Task: structure prediction
Amino acid sequence: MKKFLGYLILGVAVGAIVYTNGSVVGAWLLILWIAIYFLPALIALHRGHHQMLAIFLLNLFLGWSFLGWIASLVWSATAIRHRDALGYVA
Result:
């Protein structure tokens, strides 16, 4: 999942530069906006959240609404449940 997000961010960066016709300021603003938009998913990824995929999907599809973005941000900051060797939640 970390490789996927890395490639996604790289693709967005290249796309931003192409979209803004080589304008460095426009590309950085677009990259900054996308980083803020996906901040809940990045927090969940960094924390190793057990519901990272669900948080990413909520952020992707409902993050455009302020309530969806806030919900995914709060969810990414909730407690993380770790599984033991047998797969049970500890």
